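Page 42, continued from yesterday. The earlier attempt failed because a stray header line got pasted into the input along with the sequence. Redoing it now with the clean sequence only.
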Amino acid sequence: MAPARVEEPNLQREAAVASRSLRTNLLQADVCVCGGGLSGTIAAIAAARNGVSVVLVQDRPVLGGNASSEVRLWILGATSHMFNNNRYAREGGLVDEILLENLYRNPEGNPLILDTILLEKVREEPNIRLFLNTALMACDKDEDRIARVTAFNAQTSIMYTVEANQFIDCTGDGTLAFLAGAPFRIGAEQREEFGELFAPDVEYGQLLGHSIYFYSKDTGKPVKFVAPSYALKDVEKEIPRFHRFTTKEMGCSLWWIEHGGRLDTVHDTEEIKWELWRVVYGVWDYFKNSGRFPEAENLTLEWVGTVPGKRESRRFIGPTILKQQDITEQRYHADTVSHGGWSLDLHPADGVYSEIDGCTQWHSKGVYQIPFSTMVCAEVPNLLYGGRIISATHVAFASTRVMATSGSNANALGVAAALCKQLGTAGKPLDPILLLEKGNMSTLQRDLMRFGQYLPGYKLKDADDLVRQAASVSAEKDFVLDSLPADGPPKVLVRSLAQMLPLSQGAVPKFGVTVMSAVESTTLTVQLRGSQKAYNYTPEVILGEKTFSLNAGPNALEIDFSDVVNPQTQYVFLCLLQNDSVAVATTKTRVSALMTVEHECDQSPPDDVGIDAFERWTPVRRPMGHNLALTVSPPLAAWSVDNVRNGVPRPTKRTNCWVPAKGARKLLVTKWDAPQTVQKVVVHFDTDYDHALESVLRGHPERAIVFCVKKWRLLDLSGGQGNEKELYVEDNNHLSRREAVLEEPVTTTALGVEILELNGDESNVQGGIFEVRAYA
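This time it went through. C-alpha cells are written below.
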C-alpha cells in the first residue's frame, strides 16, 4: 500500500516509493494538429474558424517553425521575391492575412514581432487549445485509424493523451505519419521513374540540408572576438565560396551556409547543427580576425540560431505524387485546393562545402495547381499531410517545400477537416480521402474560395451568394484608362520596360507615349507581346512590332497596332526595348491591377533537364516601379463594376476588379427585384497580390498597401436617394478580405458598399474592390 501524502500549509511531502508516473492529462478534440510551424498554425486556425475544436501541439516555445525567431527565415512562396513571372501570385487565406498583419505591425521585419502575431492569432481562437513545448511521443491506432497520440511537455512534466477524430501532421519530419505507419520516401527518384529530367544524380546529391542564420550589430566601437575551440579554423581552405562572404549580410541571406545533405536529415539533425555552428563561428572569426574585413572592427555577433532551418526529410505518399511535369507544364488537377510557384530549387548535398553554386533554381512560366490527393493517406484514413511532407517527388518538393506554399496547403487542410465534420453522420466525421469524390470536392473548393483561398483556373460559383443572384450591380462611373499624366520620374531604358495592359480578345487600341532621346539620332523598338497561356504573365509571343526613329529631346510616339488581333483575353505587354540613350515619361498614378515590369534576365537551362527557356520580366518595388504616362484610344474599360461578382478576387487574365472613376462617388450598389434578408457581407479589397511581403529581415516602405481600402461602410439603400441607412462601418483596415456580420439581419432591395478612404494618397492612387458577396 502506497504511503499517504502528508499535506501541510505551504508544504507538500511524499515518502519514498518504488517509482512514480508522470501526471497524464486527457484531451479530446475534433482535430489534433501536430506541429506548430506556419503550416500547423494555419491548419489549426482554419479549422477553428470553421467550427472545429482543435488541439495544437508544438514542440517549441513559439509558433512559426522556420519563420519564427528561433530560425528567422522569411515566409515566401509563389511570388519568389517578385523575381519570376508569377504576377499577382501571393497566397490567399490565412497566409495573406498573416503577412499583411505583419506588414502593418512590423514593416522592419523583426522576427520577434512575427512570433507575437502568430501567437495572438491562435490565442484569439476559442476553438483552439495550444500546447507549446510539447513534443509528440507516440500514437495508438484502432485498426488502421489513429485513435490517440501521446505528447510530453518538459516544462510542466505533464504527459498528454490527445484523442481526436482527425489528425493533421505538420511536424516537418512527418513524425506522426511515420509512427502511424504511412508510406514515405526519402531522397531523390531516378529520372526514369517519373520521366523527370531534372532529377539529380548521386554526385549532386539527393537531399537538401539545413541552414543556421546569424545577425551582426555595429556597436560603434571596436569589438574583439575570440572564437570558440570548435569553430572552423580555415575558412578560405574549407569553404570554396568564401569569396562571397561580406559583412554587409545580416545572416539570413547566407542561406547557403548549409550542411547535412549527405547525412540522415531526421536523426542526424543535432550533428548537422553542430557542424553549422562550427561554420558560423568560423566565418565570424574570419570576418573579425583575418585582417581582410577592416569594416568589421566595430561589429559584434548579435544572434546565432540555435535551431537549424530544416529543408527536407520524409515525404509521405498519397493517391497522387506531384512531379516535375505538374509544375513546369502547369498541369490541371480536378482536386486542386492550393497553388505553388516557387522555382524548382535544388541544392547540392555538400552544401557549404560544395564547389558548385548553392542552388539551381528553374522557374515555370506561371503558377501551378496542388491537388488534395497529395495531402491524404489511403492507408490511414483519418490522417492528413501538412507542411513540406506532402506527396511529391524530390524534384517537385524542391518547389512545394517553401513556407507560404505549405501554408496555403494548410488552409485547405483546416477547411477540409471542418467539411469532414459537417458531412459526417452519427458523430463520426467523413474520412478526408472521401473528399476526393466529385461532389464533395466541389464543396471543398467552394468553401476554400469562400475562405479566401486562390485556386488557379477556378471561379467561385456560390449559389448562396445574394449578390450573384441580384438583378444588377452598378456604380456612378467606372474607371477607364484613357490617359495617365506625365508627372513621374523619367525612366531610362537601361533594361527593356513593359506596361502590362488587360486587353480583351480582338482589336488592339492605339497607344501614345513620350520618350526622350539623349542623342541626335537613334531608334526605339516597341513590341506588343502576349503569353501562350492566357493566365500566365510570360511575354513570349510577339504580337506586333514597330520601330521609331528618334530625334534628340522629347518625342511623342503614336503606337498603332491596328493590324494586330489579340488572340485571347489576357494581359498584354507594351514593351519598349532596351536603349540606354532613351528615357520614357512615367506617371505617379497607380491603379489597381495595373503595373510595369522590366526584362530582368533570361532563363537558359540546359537542353536535357525538361525546363523551359524564357525571359523573366519582373516589377520594381514601390516607391519606384511607375506606370507609363500614356494615352489609350479607344479607352480601355477593364475595371467594370460587374467584376465584383465574377468569382475571382485577384487579377488573372482580367483585372477582376472594380475601380471607381476619379471624382465619382465610390459607391457600389447591388439591387434585387424582391426584398432580400442579409446578415453577412464579404468584401475583398486590393492588397496588391503581386507583393511578396517577406516576413522578416527585408524591410518594406509601407505599413498598408496603397490600393487597399482603409475606411468603408455598408448602406441600406432600399429607401431611395436621401434615405440611406448606415449598417456597418470599418476604419483603419489593411487586410484583403473583410466580413461584415450585422447584429441584426436587414431586409432590403438595395445594398451599398462605399469606399470612404484608401490607405494610399488618393491624389495619385486609385484602388478598388475585387469581390462583394452577401448571405442571409
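Notes: The radius of gyration is 28 Å.
Reminder to self: strip header lines before submitting.
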